[in-house]
C-alpha cells in the first residue's frame, strides 16, 4: 500500500445508501460507528461522531487496511476513501480502479 505523508487519506460515508448492517463498525470501530438512527458515521480523533453530510475524517495508517476492507465489503457501496490533498477517491465506488 503506497501511502506517504503527502498522501494522507480520509474517509466519509454516504448515509443515503447505508444499509445499517454494521460491517464497517466491526472492521474498523476506531473510525466507524452506528448511531441511534441505524446508520453508520465516521468518527473524529476525539471519538466523536461526525454527522454533517459528506464530512470526512483522517484515516490512521495503522487501520488503513481495515478501512479499505470496509469500503470493499460495504453492501451499500457508500464508504469513500480519498486522498486528502486533492480529494481523489482511492478506494470505494468512485475509485478509478479497484
Ligand atoms: S458497511 Fe456500509 S452499508 Fe454497512 S453500515 Fe457500514 S457504511 Fe453502512
Automatic annotation (TrEMBL):
Pfam families for this protein: Fer4_15 (PF13459)
InterPro entries in the cross-refs: 3Fe4S_ferredoxin, ET_Ferredoxin
Keyword 4Fe-4S: yes
SUPFAM superfamilies, per database record: 4Fe-4S ferredoxins
Cofactor requirement: [4Fe-4S] cluster
Organism superkingdom: Bacteria
GO molecular function, one term: electron transfer activity
Keywords for the protein's UniProt record, in alphabetical order: 4Fe-4S, Electron transport, Iron, Iron-sulfur, Metal-binding, Transport
PANTHER family: FERREDOXIN
Name of this protein: Ferredoxin
Source species: Streptomyces sporangiiformans
